[in-house]
Amino acid sequence: LVIMFVINWWAALLTNVIVLGLFIYVSYKKPDVNWGSSTQALTYHQALTHTLHLSGVEDHIKNFRPQCLVMTGYPNSRPALLDLVHTFTKNVGLMICGHIRTGYRRPNFKDLATDQARYQRWLLKNETKAFYTPVFAEDMRHGTQYLLQAAGLGRLKPNTLVLGFKNDWRDGDMMNVETYISMIHDAFDFQFGAVILRLKEGLDVSHIQGQDELLSSQEKSSGTKDVIVSIDTSKDSDADSSKPSSKATSLQNSPAIQKDDDDDGKATT
Fold first, then answer.
1. Inside any domain, residue 146
2. Distance between CA 253 and CA 163 in Å, rounded?
């Protein structure tokens, strides 16, 4: 400060007056601004630098990691699939939870961004080290191709596609079965490995009503600890389009798809 006045006293005085004026203005107005911290800025810079350095490293046995693209749909709708992959990617590998939404109407990208932030918080609060990545696509196969091509960053890209087993392949629509098989072929074409998880009772728990309420209650701070969850045992009843649907069991162990209805605009198939 002294050197400033020695070099040019009037410029130094003007600078200090401006800084003091800005300080008084900010202190008086108290704007709702997240100023962040220098530590967070440094973390971002280091992550970006290391990611760029990794892009020039060739693959070898010492840097191979299981990096999985898991077709979970909503992360809380297939906990078994999520937990299985998390057991061998935790702390050592990348896990991306893929969610394909299909529909012929104009997609609502605002809702997509809201859900992306919401379910990413859900993963963090459940201490699941994964990234939630939803996409809009014309159909399930195209959505899978989009994720296989674009998911990840640099060397931090998936190398394994993880799917749930299609239990009704005998009785389901042959077009859906063909799409399911084509997804596996696409993974091989992109030089991906493939993992298919099969459980006798299935993987999809989205038929349990109250998933959204449970998610909202976990996002709140301290409140009532008891959560009431009701189970809808009827197979033919219509589910609320704002929640993952249980109407179709054909994809209960394959990626969840949210499809636009004529009425509400969104439903899971």
1. yes
2. 7
What angle do helix axes 109-125 and 211-219 make, rounded to 10 degrees?
A: 70
Instruction: Note the pTM of the prediction, 2 decimals.
Output: 0.66
If residue 50 lies in a helix (H) or strand (E), which one and from where to where?
helix 38-54
Examine residue 110 and state whether it is found in any structural domain, yes or no: yes
Question: How many domains would you assign to the chain?
Answer: 1
Pure H helices in 68-223: 79-89, 109-125, 140-150, 174-189, 211-219
* Inside any domain, residue 85: yes
Following CA atoms 102, 105, 110, 114 in sequence, which dihedral angle do they give, to the nearest 10 degrees?
-30
Element (H, E) at 10: helix 9-29
Quote the domain boundaries for residue 89: 68-214+237-268
Mean pLDDT of 194-214: 69
**Taking the mean position of all CA atoms in its chain, how far away is CA 148?**
15
Q: Which CATH number covers residue 207?
A: 3.40.50.620
Sign of CA dihedral 163, 219, 264, 109: negative
How many angstroms separate the Cα of 187 from the Cα of each of 69, 82, 141? Answer: 10, 19, 11
The number of beta carbons lying within 10 Å of the beta carbon of residue 259 is: 20
Query: Residue 137 belongs to what H/E stretch?
Result: strand 131-137
Q: What pLDDT digit, counting tens, does each position of 34-51 carry?
A: 878 889 999 999 999 999
- Identify whether 59 is part of a domain: no
Q: Which of 155-164, 200-209, 255-264 is predicted least confidently?
A: 255-264
